[in-house]
Amino acid sequence: MSNFTKTYHALGTEIKLTVFQEGQVPALDKAYELIQYCEDILTVNRTESEIMSINHASGKGAVSVSKISYDLVKAAVKVSQKNQGFNAAIGPLVKLWHIGFSDAEVPTEKEISNRLRLTNPGRIMLDDSNRSVYLLDEGMELDLGGIAKGYIADAIKKLWYESGVEQGIIDLGGNVLLVGQSIHEDGLWTVGVQSPFDTRSDYLGIVEIPDYSVVTSGIYERFLNKQGHSYHHIMDPKTGYPVKTDLIGVTVISPKSIDGEIWSSLGFYNNYEGTLKLLTDNAIGLVFVYKDRTIRLTDNLKDKFKLTDTSFKII
């Protein structure tokens, strides 16, 4: 079967969109238009967007936004207020460290302490009737990060189904979402799980799954080296420092991409044992990869995951 792929750049990454019928090629550009629209309203990497309007109004008043922005913020706040590690109000800390950018520096204890006061998700007020968001304290900032990418991937899948696309691959760079059944007799897809020690084309193993999402987060892509110390970009909302962990990568297999983004964060914050205590949905599976090249799998992936790189070991 032929495939038709287009490569785009958006969301700070390389995007590859694939369909398997020539007549469905226009769906690729439609998806890219949706990505651009969502990025315009959801980004915090520009001075203007709907999310930045909420941030600019922190401590001053509520801001009404589009349904897309409101639904995403509401989902992020709901998870954040459980205080399990994921925190949509982490913006002030992310901006303070700015890891991955040329001006990244290690902040002082006082700077970190001051910013931590501005990261309480309980200080975010939502109003469903007006679709408005109010950050109660001046200086608070939303940073939706990966959860926005997950939301966008799910939105593309919905768009494609409505457009008659029966098979496709949505690859938003570290976030892959499958559409429909594969060409194999069992309808399952074979997807590589990213090796955190190599480039994006190298895998440590493969999974056979239905039209699910595969999301990988790692501490290996963005970091800051200062005075003999290496600081990665995944912040601990309790300490204000990068999360202390022996993990180097977490991959989540889930029906929805937004859930993959949430659980990849929760996996880093809570490690294997802590994540198992939180996980109640058997449709969501996780692959934990450690710095010593050991791997731990949730039980629901043990018959779906095949190790292909023998330098790793499943425990």
UniProtKB/TrEMBL annotation:
<keyword id="KW-0479">Metal-binding</keyword>
<protein>
    <recommendedName>
        <fullName>FAD:protein FMN transferase</fullName>
        <ecNumber>2.7.1.180</ecNumber>
    </recommendedName>
</protein>
<dbReference type="GO" id="GO:0016740">
    <property type="term" value="F:transferase activity"/>
</dbReference>
<dbReference type="InterPro" id="IPR024932">
    <property type="entry name" value="ApbE"/>
</dbReference>
<keyword id="KW-0274">FAD</keyword>
<keyword id="KW-0808">Transferase</keyword>
<dbReference type="Pfam" id="PF02424">
    <property type="entry name" value="ApbE"/>
</dbReference>
<feature type="binding site">
    <location>
        <position position="265"/>
    </location>
    <ligand>
        <name>Mg(2+)</name>
    </ligand>
</feature>
<keyword id="KW-0449">Lipoprotein</keyword>
<keyword id="KW-0460">Magnesium</keyword>
<dbReference type="GO" id="GO:0046872">
    <property type="term" value="F:metal ion binding"/>
</dbReference>
<keyword id="KW-0285">Flavoprotein</keyword>
<comment type="similarity">
    <text>Belongs to the ApbE family.</text>
</comment>
<dbReference type="InterPro" id="IPR003374">
    <property type="entry name" value="ApbE-like_sf"/>
</dbReference>
<feature type="binding site">
    <location>
        <position position="146"/>
    </location>
    <ligand>
        <name>Mg(2+)</name>
    </ligand>
</feature>
